[in-house]
């Protein structure tokens, strides 16, 4: 499991991170909202823990930006503000849960488990876009009822595009998601795989859903 912790207070971030790592959970830390947004886009996380009050953005802004970009992973907000209206506002813009500081780590762990259980029920492993269907569990792709054989990296790229349909994805973002953030590969490998992917899922059906955005990258769009 991999969690993104967006928290500017280093002492709190270290306590939470150490406790999660003890439970064999991988944790990435972002110290401000903009860094957190960049990391959320570039990496695949199972859940985000988000401090409400950050130096550059408030938690409601970050939640809204993530949801508007079609991020469906659970978001748990941490805040020293124990205010009913603030809780309602955050839940309305996309937070899944809200924990008031100070809190016990046992409570945080329980909230994480509950959010992930809910995510598994709601999110599932089947993605759809128009007549394109990707079953991640079965590792299968279909379009117009026809099965399409894809390589592992092609499925990874297609998954990323389908999760962020209508959103422009840079070559660097796709590279980081499909090969990992520390890959030493060049971005032209993305062009090769997207070209092959387009030949398999678009061209045989006379469809152009995988679109090139000049000098930037690609997007899945009607």
Automatic annotation (TrEMBL):
Keywords: DNA-binding, Phosphoprotein, Transcription, Transcription regulation, Two-component regulatory system. This is Winged helix family two component transcriptional regulator. The modification 4-aspartylphosphate is found at residue 51. The keyword DNA-binding applies. The keyword DNA-binding applies. SMART domains: REC (SM00448), Trans_reg_C (SM00862). It comes from Candidatus Doudnabacteria bacterium Gr01-1014_77. GO terms for cellular component: cytosol; protein-DNA complex. Residues 2-116 form the Response regulatory domain. Residues 124-222 bind DNA. GO terms for biological process: regulation of DNA-templated transcription. Residues 124-222 form the OmpR/PhoB-type domain.
């Amino acid at each position: 499991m991999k969690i993104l912790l967006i928290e500017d207070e280093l002492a709190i971030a270290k306590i939470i991170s150490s406790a999660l790592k003890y439970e064999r959970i991988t944790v990435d830390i972002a110290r401000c909202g903009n860094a957190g947004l960049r990391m959320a886009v570039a990496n695949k996380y199972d859940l985000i823990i988000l401090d409400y009050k950050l130096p550059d953005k408030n938690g409601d802004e970050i939640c809204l930006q993530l949801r508007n970009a079609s991020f469906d992973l659970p978001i748990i907000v941490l805040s020293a503000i124990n205010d009913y209206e603030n809780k309602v506002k955050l839940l309305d813009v996309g937070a899944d849960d809200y924990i008031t500081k100070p809190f016990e780590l046992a409570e945080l762990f329980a909230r994480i488990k509950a959010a992930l259980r809910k995510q598994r029920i709601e999110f599932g492993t089947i993605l759809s876009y128009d007549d394109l269907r990707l079953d991640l569990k079965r590792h299968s792709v279909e379009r117009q009822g026809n099965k399409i054989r894809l390589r592992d990296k092609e499925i990874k790229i297609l998954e990323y595009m389908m999760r962020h349909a209508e959103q422009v994805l840079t070559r660097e973002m796709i590279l980081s998601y499909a090969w990992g953030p520390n890959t030493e590969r060049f971005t032209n490998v993305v062009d090769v795989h997207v070209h092959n992917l387009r030949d398999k899922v678009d061209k045989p059906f006379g469809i152009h859903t995988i679109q090139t955005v000049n000098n930037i990258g690609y997007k899945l769009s009607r």
